[in-house]
Description:
The complex is a heterodimer. By secondary structure, chain A is an alpha/beta fold. Chain A has helices at residues 2-10, 26-39, 55-59, 81-96, 102-115, 121-134, 151-185, 191-197, 200-219, 235-250, 271-291, 309-319, and strands at 15-19, 44-48, 68-71, 74-78, 143-147, 225-231, 255-263, 295-300. Chain A has an eight-stranded mixed β-sheet, with helices on both faces. In chain A, strand 3 and strand 4 (74-78) form a beta hairpin. In chain A, helix 2 packs across helix 12, helix 4 (81-96) crosses helix 6 and helix 6 packs across helix 7. The model of chain A has no long low-confidence stretch (mean pLDDT 89). By secondary structure, chain B is mainly alpha-helical. Chain B has helices at residues 2-50, 61-64, 68-84, 88-95. Chain B starts with a helix and ends with a helix. Chain B has one domain (2-95). The A-B interface holds A 85, 88-89, 91-92, 95-96, 100-101, 103-104, 107-108, 111-112, 115, 118-121, 124-125, 163-164, 167-168, 170-171, 174-175, 177-178, 181-182, 184-185, 187-189, 192, 200-201, 204-205, 208 and B 28, 31-32, 34-35, 37-38, 41-42, 44-45, 48-49, 52-53, 57-73, 75-76.
Amino acid sequence: MEGDKVMSVLVNKEIIFFGGKGGVGKTTCSSAYSLSLARRGYKTLVLSTDPAHSLGQIFQVELGDAPKKLDTNLYGIEIDPETESKRYINRIRQQMQGSFSANIIIEIQRQLDAAYHSPGAEEAAIFDRFIEIIDLVGTEYQRVVFDTAPTGHTLRLLSLPELMDRWLQGMIERRRNVKEMMRMASVVDKSLEERIKDDPVMRILLDRKQRFEKAKEFLIDKKRAGFVFVLNPQQLPILETEKAVGFLERNGIPVEGIIINRIMPDDIDSEFFAKRKQVEDGYLRQIEAKFGDRILHRIPLMEYDISGYESIDRVAKIFS
Amino acid sequence: MANIKDTIKKGLKFLADVNRGFFEGARENSVRIVKKDALDGNDYFILLCFSDFLGIPSPASYYTLELLPYMAEELEGWELRMADKKDILDEQFEKYHFH
């Protein structure tokens, strides 16, 4: 059975990401997969990184930033970038109180207010939470399933550690250099000694770098993490998936396979839908040719909506 | 005799003074240059962290916010210096007394 293939390929990996174009059924597949894991006895956390969340809607519960129990062994989170960045920025605000001149405080407050909307802030906030969650793998949870945002968003998110690592490296080198020069110059100017004595800035930069490296290591670790793409037998999802798989593989992130969702049934009595089915068959052959044995599963188009516990339950049975 | 000895002594002392003065001056000057370079380097470091304060977007700007509590004091002077940079070459010449 193909359903077994999903479980046998994926089950030993601690983290699985479900990706794909918007609306192809990522949330359906990640919910079903995490439910299957939970039923096999793995304590599982399923979480959505899509700012337009739909995970809670499928389980018909209100999800938020803190894990909520969905079923035996199953917990859910919807990462809210705004809550994340608020927490981060408020911590900075608190550290800023006192000890500074009014001028500086006003300027900094202005910057902090603007920071919520600065380019990349949302991804950075999601990524911070992502790093926190990686720390819970193997201790708090045995398995973590990511219901990611549509492809472009997710690829940007995943390229963040690489990009930031380079920036941080530049900053760390520059800082080190400056400190070394200050140390030399402190022979004539003792006040410089004060500035290089204890360096929280360097500490923070090194700590950041370490966390990015940890995330990067995890993402490319074939034994621990993997990516699954969900697509529909249609032109654009196929093209987008092909591009995304290429991107991930170039970046060393393992792609485990693809799941084809919403395949029309064979017995169709309407002429219109029979024609549509023919078009679909063409796309299915394309998928076959492009992905071959990386196809993990084919999910038929269902006559009901995938929402609410019962329908999820039916999809979960496909994977188990 | 004593006179000649004194003269030689004076002469040697003079040479030693010139010598010391010359090297100490050079040493002090080189340390001064290092100090200027260190402060300049620090300004560039702040630029890497907070270029968006000057309106230059930086991909790291969200992450460097947490450095603010430790660097805020330097920022005011830094912004003034950045606004005041009219001639970077001039600044470099000044370091070596090329005026």
